[in-house]
Amino acid sequence: MALKTYIEEVWQTLQSFSGLENRSLVLGYSGGVDSEVLAFLLSQLKQSQPQLSVKLVYINHGLSCFADDWQKHCEQRAIQYQLPFVAKSVKVKQGSRLSLEAEARKARYQALLEEMHSGDILLTAHHQDDQLETLLLALKRGQGPKGLSGMAPVQVIEKEVIQYRPLLNLSKSAIQELAQQHKISHIEDDSNQDDSFDRNFLRLNIIPALKKRWTSIATTGSRTAELCGEQQALLDEVVGEKLTSYLADSPYAEKVLTLAGFNELSRPWQRQIFRAFIAFIKLPIPSRVQLDEILDQVLNAKSDASVELNVSGLTIRRYQGQVFAFASAQLDNKLPQSIVLGTQAELAEKDYQVALADGRVLQLSEILNQVQLSESAPLSIRFNLAGSTQCHPHFRHKSRALKKLWQELKVPPWERAKVPMLFINGKFVSAVNLWIEKDYFKVGVVE
Predict the structure, then answer these.
(1) 371 known member of a binding site
(2) pLDDT band at residue 368, thresholds of 50, 70 and 90?
(3) Fewer CB near the terminus (10 Å): N or C of the chain?
(4) Which Gene Ontology molecular-function terms are recorded (predicted)?
């Protein structure tokens, strides 16, 4: 295929993105032959479409003694291409239980995204052989159709950034031929010869043998990934429709999964819907073994039991027939501290707003408007009252123990200690945003 045809295909795809004039194109630029050819193609496209905003970004991982030399090479090439260039240094986490490949990839993408805004387009130089590697790794990991879908030519990633892989249908040999034809200078990463890395092992030892036996395996592998992607898209559509029947709103989570009728589903459907729930709230998907353990625990527990499971950075909780999911790192187990607010007049100077240590901001003006209050009475916020505390909410005719009210109002156990309790002159007056004590409620009883 001629260079002009490549450029036309890239331009045709880019034009399919609405509002292209407001999007920036950012190339993850390493200086290797793949990204170098893509940088060259972009420079040619820029000449015919000068309105495009294009930037080359080199990520210096600091893992090779040649990294600074490669950075200089990329900077010099960017000058020749007449394209803006940015170099960013990252620190890659290393450890006995960490994959250096995965951590480098994570650091690289994070650095690239820092250079981008919502709607921008990230271009990466993945090609057909990379797709075959991805397919083989998915087989090695025992992944299903989603994993076997490999890399999509176009997908939306973090920050609503669009990732576009213009070379995905090109073989490695076709890219190398382009580089030779147009005398495109590129670097050779010495780490590419280290077959202790999974991708290098496949690239150096397995794929050449496969291609020797089946010359078109990269092409057919890409076709397999495309077919799996289509099947996964259809499955996602059906699962998404089913998921809506089990999603529920909650003041204590973005969404919760209600378990009513869930036991009647087959285990494969339970897995699919639960995975879709976790994906919907943008949390890490548990493995098949972890998923079955979660389902066994939440589905087989007694109806009044509270369940909590922690797997791979994911915390799953069940309460009153609903499943809550959180990123474990985001959970703060520290109890908030009591706060002395001063008098109503002093609180008014702060517009009745109270900042809590966990980042929440309470607005107390509406509550205080409904409370019988002396302006000179001291106000305070306390937390974690004893469950035996007798309370008389404005909406009830009789008082009840606090622990029973928590259950009645469906406040999950892990949230109860965080509910701000308003005291005036040492007397309990309100569970903020839940109720006002009847003796202090001046508007009237709400049945």
Answers:
(1) no
(2) confident
(3) C
(4) ATP binding; tRNA(Ile)-lysidine synthase activity
